[in-house]
Amino acid sequence: MRLIPLQSGSSGNCILVEGRGVRVLFDAGISAKRVTERLAEHGIAASSIDALFISHEHSDHIAAAGVLARRFGMPLHLTAATHAASRQVLGDCPFTAFVAGGSVRIKGLTIETVATPHDAVDGVIFIVADGERRLGVMTDFGHVLAWLPGLVETLDAVYLESNYDERMLRDGPYPETLKRRISGPGGHISNDESAQLIGSCGRHLQWACLAHLSATNNQPDLALAAHRRCYGEDLPLSVASRERASAPLMLR
Ligand SMILES: [Zn+2]
Ligand SMILES: [Zn+2]
Fold first, then answer.
1. Per-residue pLDDT tens for 43-76?
2. Rounded to the nearest whole angstrom, what is the distance from the C-alpha of residue 252 to the centroid of ligand 2?
3. How many angstroms separate the alpha carbon of residue 214 from the centre of ligand 1?
4. Three-class DSSP labels, the chain
5. 82 alpha carbon, closest ligand
């Protein structure tokens, strides 16, 4: 399998995972034009995407989903509640509903979904399994739930949220209510929480890609340093760009 972050963060999220000849996009929070261009950089036509999965209805995850489904016939997968919450943004387009916590088979890949307490109506994170390897696509999950370490232990690689530096958030310009939302149980996880998650149970990982970094409350070097401090230098680490597609990550 390989994963290509097409963009990551509150300005828009879109991730390609490819394996067993199957191409799946996760989230579509950047414009259809950008999705098309960034796929083309890797020789991939938007019309060749086998499925587009949406994690939740926040606009940084869903803005272009309706356009992509209509223009390129991308099969759209989301929960019924997420669809209901995003109908206005999506417009009229066919979709397949999955149940949060269920699995969906897309040819040779299985997409497992796990419900999250993020402040969306029916948010999920994803695990992509090809029969040999398991890859986590995990952002916007609110807080580190009790079962999350056990899940990370089963993964071979992870695309993982590392949203904010605790000091930057505390001392930064956001109003107190927004600071509480971000650090609260339905918000995002900090660099230290993300690092501890990998440090406590990520020993099987081939690599980790840090994702959904805040523009206001984080910096890539701070996120990387928090992770290195927690579990050392051995694990290959990268940071998904907020502005462009990042280098492909191969899972062997
Ligand atoms: Zn988000
Ligand atoms: Zn969100």
1. 999 999 999 999 999 999 999 999 999 999 999 9
2. 30
3. 10
4. CEEEEEECCCCCCEEEEEECCEEEEECCCCCHHHHHHHHHCCCCCHHHCCEEECCCCCHHHHCCHHHHHHHHCCCEEECHHHHHHCHHHHCCCCCEECCCCCEEEECCEEEEEEECCCCCCCCEEEEEECCCCEEEEECCCCCCCCCHHHHHCCCCEEEEECCECHHHHHHCCCCHHHHHHHHCCCCCCEHHHHHHHHHHHCCCCCCEEEECCCCCCCCHHHHHHHHHHHHCCCCCEEECCCCCCCCCEECC
5. 2
Q: What is the pLDDT averaged over residues 10-38?
A: 97
Tell whether the model's pLDDT for residue 216 goes beyond 90: yes
- Model-level pTM? 0.97
Q: What is the pLDDT, as a whole number, of residue 224?
A: 98
Ligand 1 center from residue 7 Cα (angstroms) = 11
Supply the pLDDT for residue 120: 97
The ligand minimizing its distance to the Cα of 60 is 1
CA of 74 to the centre of ligand 1 (A): 21
Of the listed ligands, the closest to the CA of 15 is 1
Distance from residue 8's CA to the centre of ligand 1 (Å): 8
Examine the pLDDT at 203 and tell me if it is beyond 90: no
State the distance from the centre of ligand 1 to the C-alpha of 203, rounded, in angstroms: 27
In order of their start, the domains of the chain are 1-98 (3.60.15.10), 141-243 (3.60.15.10)
